[in-house]
Amino acid sequence: MGDTARLVNMAREAGLRVATAESCTGGMLAAAITETPGASSVFEWGVVTYANAAKRSLLGVSAESLDAHGAVSEEVAAEMARGARDRSGAEIAISITGLAGPGGSDHKPEGRVCFGVATRNGIATETVEFGARGRDTVRALSRDRAIALVIAAIEAQARP
């Protein structure tokens, strides 16, 4: 069983729904989840907010956070995840925002990706430095990391 099938089965067994908020992956996570038979029982919705204006209008990310920290930040990832959870009604929401490449800077290098996971227990964030490994690779690694984070969140939510 692949990781997305595991995610879907675990969420179904736990009675949990999942939502996604993606930027640099452009919907790859939602596509991976929904390729799995039975995903409709657990996948609430996904949104691609590539532009900052979309992050603000669709997810409620504050202009202050975007101005102070930039789109590629744990602060924005947290607000994206919170917005997806609040707006979807799902028990778990995951966000992905990063610099897949090419390009970047000393301050925000290519391959930096920030994740947010919102659950009833709060919001957790992390940053992964995948490195300048090429756009396709960074996006695929980001999708896979997000799947692992959702599985971990399901496990945590399923515990009494």
Question: What would you say this structure looks like, in words?
Answer:
By secondary structure, the protein is of the alpha/beta class. Helices cover 46% and strands 21% of the residues. It has six helices and five strands, in the order H-E-H-E-H-H-H-E-E-E-H. A five-stranded mixed beta sheet has the order 2-1-3-4-5, with helices on both faces. Strand 4 and strand 5 form a beta hairpin. Helix 1 (3-14) packs parallel to helix 6 (135-158) and helix 2 (28-34) crosses helix 6. The protein is globular. The mean pLDDT is 95.
- What gross morphology would you assign? globular
Helical content band: 40-55%
What can be said about the biggest beta sheet?
5 strands, mixed
Mean pLDDT: 95
Secondary structure topology:
Layout: H1 3-14, E1 18-22, H2 28-34, E2 43-48, H3 52-59, H4 63-69, H5 74-88, E3 92-98, E4 112-119, E5 122-129, H6 135-158
Parallel strand pairs: 1-2, 1-3
Antiparallel strand pairs: 3-4, 4-5
Helix pairs in contact: 1-6, 2-6
Gist of the model:
By secondary structure, the protein is an alpha/beta fold. It contains six helices and five strands.
Name its key features.
alpha/beta, globular, about 160 residues, 6 helices
